[in-house]
Amino acid sequence: MAASRENFGFNALIGPLVKLWKIGFPGANVPADADIQARMKLIDPSAVTLAPGERTVMLNQAGMELDLGGIAKGYIADQIKTLWQAYGVTAGIIDLGGNLLTVGESPRRADGQWVIGVQDPAKRRNVDLGVTVVPACSAVTSGIYERFLIKNGKQYHHLLDPRTGYPLQTALAGVTVFTSTSLQGEVEAKRLFFHGSVPAGWLDDPAHLGAVFAYQDGHHETCGVTLT
Q1: Using CA atoms, how far apart are residues 78 and 193, in angstroms rounded to an integer?
Q2: Which among 67, 97, 139, 165 counts the fewest CB atoms within 10 Å?
Q3: With contact defined as beta carbons under 8 Å apart, do 182 and 149 qualify?
Q4: Domain 2-68 maps to which CATH number in 3.40.1360.10, 3.40.50.920, 1.10.3980.10, 1.10.3720.10?
C-alpha cells in the first residue's frame, strides 16, 4: 500500500478501473468519461485502513477493491525461491511469463552469472532486443505490446494511469528492470514505465541492478546493464 500512496502509477486499488475498461478480457471497450470519473472515486489508496497487528485491510468506501494482479507474479516467484531454498535447491530459473527470477549461480558459465534476453516489443515472442549478463536476480517487464484494444483505429493499452483513469500516454513500448527480488521488480518496472526514465538516485539502491527501456519507434536505451 505504501507504493500505491506514492502516486507514481502503481495502485493496488485499480481494480474498478480495470473492470471498466476490460482490456485483455472479453468485453473490452472504451468507457464513457463519466463512468471513468465515477470509478476514479473508488481507487484512492488513502481510503484504506491497514492494521498490521491484526493483519487486516479495511476498504472504507463501498465499491473499492484490491487488485493484486500488478504484483502477484513477483510475490509468487519470491515464495517459490524460498520453497526451493528450504528443499536445498541451489540454482535454477523461475519463469512466470514476463517475470523471471534466477536463483544461485548459473551452471552454464564459469563466472556463475546468468544470460537474460530482453524481448523486442516489435517482434514475435522470444525474439530479443539483445541479451545481458547479470548475477542472480529478477527480471520483470512492464509493456503495452501484448494486451491492448483497437477501437476506431486507435490503440488503447492495458496500463491504466490511476491519476487520469486512461491508458498512460507514453513513447515507451516496454521497460525491463533487474532487481534483487521479484516483488521489487514488479513495483520498480511500473515506477520506471510511468516515470519514462530512471529517477535520480535509482541505481544507488543496491537492490536495483539496471533497466532497459524499449520505445515504440524501435530504439532502446539501457541503464546499469549492457545489451549485446
Answers
A1: 22
A2: 97
A3: no
A4: 1.10.3980.10
